[in-house]
Amino acid sequence: xxxxxxxxxxxxxxxxxxxxxxxxxxxxxxxxxxxxxxxxxxxxxxxxxxxxxxxxxxxxxxxxxxxxxx
Length: 70
Description:
two-stranded antiparallel sheet; 1 helix
C-alpha cells in the first residue's frame, strides 16, 4: 500500500503519539523526530492488535546508508 508517496506494509504497529503529542500522519512523526539528537529519549505510544501501548526509546545516530531487506 502507498501512503503519502511511500510504500507501507499493511499490518503491524501504528505510532499514535510521541511524548504525548498526537501523531496524525507520517509527516507529523518526521517533524517530531527531526529536531532531536542522538541520545535523546522519547516515549512512543502505539497500537498493537488494537491495544494502546507505550515504550521509551533512545534515538541512535542516523546511519550513513540504508539497505533494504527483501
